[in-house]
Amino acid sequence: MGKRILDQVSAAANGRSFVVTNRSVLAIAVPMTLAYLTTPLLGIVDTAVVGQLGDAALLGGLAAGALVFDVVFTSFNFLRSGTTGLVAQALGRGDELEEQAVFWRAVLIAVVAGIVFAALAPLVAIAGQWFMSAEPRVSEAMAVYIRIRLLAAPFSLINYAILGYVLGRGEGGLGLMLQLVLNGINIALCILLGLELGWGVAGVAWATVTGEFVAMLLGLAIIGRRFWAAPRLPRHRILDLSAFLRMMSLNRDIMIRSFSLLAAFALFTRQGAQFGTVTLAANAVLMNFFLIAGYFLDGFATAAEQLAGRAVGARAAMQFRQAVRLTLFWGFGLAATATLVLLLGGTDLVALITTSEDVRAVVDIYLPWAAFTALSGVLAFQMDGVFIGATWSRDMRNMMLLSFLVFSAALLILAPAFGNHGLWAALHVFLLVRGFSLLAILRVRMRTAF
């Protein structure tokens, strides 16, 4: 009994013995920023491949299909972010077995949900067509994309769990490697199948399916080998009811948050479709720029998740405060850089993405709106990371719902009055409310946590 207590004290001490420095932040943020940037790069390649066909309807169909896919899959992003927070806290406590258990619980959820989504692909496509209410050729392209890409559902969701475990451990380099494999295969096959072989939207979708499958196999092989050499995890530990309920509660809140986020983007895209096919296509191009800015900042949000979660697990208030300060400092610096790059080079990027002169002309008008999303959204990204790592999911959920209501009101007021300018202004309102609402309650949560 005495030896067990000593072991627990030693494990806890090991979990607490860490410091938060610029180097520790950058060790996670830099590789994951590079990793996340491959995702919007993939979106740009997808858009560019279809854009080379010179048909705005196909470009709009790809954008609408990608949106419907994101509504389905990003709602399950808790399998990444929730796993990161729980693994980071287990690491902070020095509980190696719980790290394994969290991963396998996430994989079980991923397998069940993935199979269900793959089976429901035709119904999801029909629902997407009904919601978007776009012209027939746009709807046809969207349905093709959704039906094929949803076949990758089990692989995609398992990859979320794999990445969540890796990031919870603070292993940014391994996370970068896995994302490079996934998106590298996807980009190469997208060009080959979509452009060289002329498969168009279907080729883009099949490229995604293949990339997700290969990345899943590699990730499971790496983690499985690690677990094989680690202490054996009792099966009952994975199926522990209280732990599962805690994960499901956390996942429920993150799912509501993620669904609310994508509902806002869905309303944004739908409103753009009401302004016409060319405006829809132009907004699709600009949203890729918004994603570039977002993924550019996600590396530091991930650093906030891991470091804040580990600090909460170790009950280390000083490390928690330092993680918040440093990730916010670096986040604002990179947000300003991203905005400047897009303002100076956005027009040249548009020329690479689409050959449609009509789409290019509309994109040039609204480019500044997309460029400044980095600065208006940086606080929201960073605060999300802190709250996910600390597993304060209820606060994050509530503030997202509040932000969605404010966004909906802004959309109803600004879009009719100012057209597409009003649409983009409403998006900025949404991002600002998300960030400042979470910041307002952070101090209260810190007092109760430590």
From TrEMBL:
User: Which positions, given as ranges, span the membrane?
Assistant: 25-45, 57-79, 102-132, 144-167, 174-195, 201-223, 254-273, 285-304, 324-345, 365-387, 399-418, 424-444
The subcellular location is: Membrane
Q: How does it sit in the membrane?
A: Multi-pass membrane protein
Q: Keywords on this record?
A: Membrane, Transmembrane, Transmembrane helix
CDD domains, per database record: MATE_DinF_like
Record Pfam families: MatE (PF01554)
Q: Does the keyword Cell inner membrane apply?
A: no
* Family the entry assigns: Belongs to the multi antimicrobial extrusion (MATE) (TC 2.A.66.1) family.
Q: Which PANTHER family match?
A: PROTEIN DETOXIFICATION 44, CHLOROPLASTIC (PTHR42893:SF46), PROTEIN DETOXIFICATION 44, CHLOROPLASTIC-RELATED (PTHR42893)
Q: What name goes with this protein? A: Multidrug resistance protein NorM
Organism annotation: Mesorhizobium ventifaucium
